[in-house]
Design brief:
The complex is a heterodimer of chains A (about 170) and B (about 80). With about 170 residues, chain A is mainly α. Helix content of chain A is about 65%, strand content about 0%. With about 80 residues, chain B is an all-alpha fold. Helices cover about 70% and strands about 0% of the residues of chain B. Chain B has helices spanning about 5-15, 20-30, 40-60, 60-65, 70-80. Chain B starts with a helix and ends with a helix. The mean pLDDT of chain B is about 85. The chains are: A mainly alpha (about 170), B mainly alpha (about 80).
Amino acid sequence: MSRNFIPEETLIDQLLLDDTTAFEELYHLYCYPLYTYCTNKLNSPVDAKRIVRDVFIVLWEKRRSLPVNFSLSLYLYQEVRKAVVGCINEKLETDKDLLTIQTQVIPGFAVVNLQQAKRPVKKTYSEIRYLQSLARDKSNNTPWWNQQPAGIATLKNVLQKAFNLL
Amino acid sequence: MTTKILHQKANRYLCGAAMPAETRQIQAWLSCTDNNKAPLSEEEKTLIEKEILEEVRSYTAYPLFYPKEKPWWKKITAVF
């Protein structure tokens, strides 16, 4: 959900129509998490900025060829992960920032540190509450034979919406 | 691990020629999201976002080709 409470799917649909506002909404949604991820991995804000910038430039350029059911978060994280490894490879090729890689990056490859990837992700209090509310909604689901019958108006609306979508 | 070994592993990973164990090691490292750094302030976050967005704008030049529509209240005020 964006800052304007527009669902992400709608923003992606608008992106296909060259809507720059939708693009910027999506950008604001993902920019900082991606930047933080890159900075943590590379210990270089300059490289992190470059990677995030390039990923969004490619997204804008590819906007008209996005597949159906496109998952933006998945796409962005895949691209950023690739770019992080690429950046390290490039630095090692050119012998740039070797000290930073030796002291900051290589210790991350130790088995002890890699164990963290297997641990479940810690959830924040708000996330836990949200998940609990979802579970409560599911448990309150009444079986179809106990549900209130839908009125003709509701049925008409649903059918009209489906027809409009077609 | 030395930088030389890391370079070889990263190179093989990018070329798609890494051993399964190497791939798993690199992917596990990429999946580690332990953040030991202090979070940035809201102002700093906004500044970084703005900086990157400006670079994206200047590279793609989309504000030039796809200018934003004026909001309705601006159009009305322009009439008067």
